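Field log, afternoon session.

UNIT: design team B
ACTIVITY: writing a sequence onto a fixed backbone
BACKBONE:
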């Protein structure tokens, strides 16, 4: 009996069923105590292994995501947003927008919580098993530009294609030159109607020419982003940094297309 059990444990580990191997002893005792059938015993072990694999996958996706670890829905004060925005956020948390390659654009003044919200949404998606990448837009643009210079831009875009959701933080924060604008536009065009992008920006759409320089390119970029999208208008949200400092920030006009 001892040899058979040792062989069973060794076989389970060889088959990469480590969670089952670790649970055999306790599950066998419970099976004997509760009079479980062989099928129920195996089903319980299978459930344990499946749960362990799901947990390991989420842990791996979390590491790969580069999401801000402390910026989750648990630390986000949703009461800062108006009721309509909170309803939009609740719908987005389900992750259903990814199936239709819908984009999300969070537009707001500095300190409105755009990055925190985008990161929290990313964490919620990862917890559901979706591959997500969070990146400052400026850093990703430089990465793509270097790939273009090395004639490996298609390979770099293919790597990004593995992510069901790409979070581009602060798309309007760094002003891009023409080469940088071109690779950013290429990325948006590549994912258009295929994979979702979450964008945070302090620029309303009428100011996006500051990013893409050329009016026609700007219109084309906005068209690809907004065609299938949810726009979260946070322009009226008070800056938490200003609030903490006791200041009263002015509220800009609503998002204009």
């Amino acid at each position: 009996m001892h040899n058979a059990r040792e062989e069973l444990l060794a076989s389970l580990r060889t088959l990469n069923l480590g969670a089952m191997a670790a649970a055999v002893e306790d599950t066998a005792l419970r099976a004997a105590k509760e009079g479980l059938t062989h099928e129920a015993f195996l089903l319980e072990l299978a459930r344990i292994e499946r749960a362990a694999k799901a947990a390991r996958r989420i842990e791996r996706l979390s590491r790969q995501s580069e999401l801000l670890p402390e910026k989750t829905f648990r630390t986000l004060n949703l009461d800062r947003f108006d009721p309509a925005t909170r309803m939009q956020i609740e719908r987005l948390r389900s992750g259903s927008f990814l199936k239709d390659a819908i984009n999300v654009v969070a537009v707001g003044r500095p300190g409105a919580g755009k990055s925190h919200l985008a990161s929290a949404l990313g964490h919620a998606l990862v917890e559901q098993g979706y591959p997500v990448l969070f990146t400052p837009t400026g850093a990703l643009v430089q990465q793509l530009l270097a790939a273009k210079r090395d004639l490996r831009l298609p390979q770099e875009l293919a790597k990004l294609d593995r992510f069901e959701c790409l979070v581009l933080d602060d798309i309007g924060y760094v002003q891009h030159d023409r080469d940088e604008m071109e690779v950013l536009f290429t990325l948006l065009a590549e994912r258009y109607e295929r994979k979702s992008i979450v964008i945070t920006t302090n620029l309303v759409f009428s100011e996006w020419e500051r990013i893409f320089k050329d009016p026609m390119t700007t219109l084309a970029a906005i068209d690809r982003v907004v065609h299938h999208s949810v726009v979260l208008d946070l322009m009226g949200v008070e800056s938490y940094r200003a609030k903490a400092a006791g200041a009263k920030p002015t509220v800009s006009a609503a998002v204009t297309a």
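LOG NOTE: The radius of gyration is 24 Å.
NEXT ACTIVITY: expression trials, pending approval
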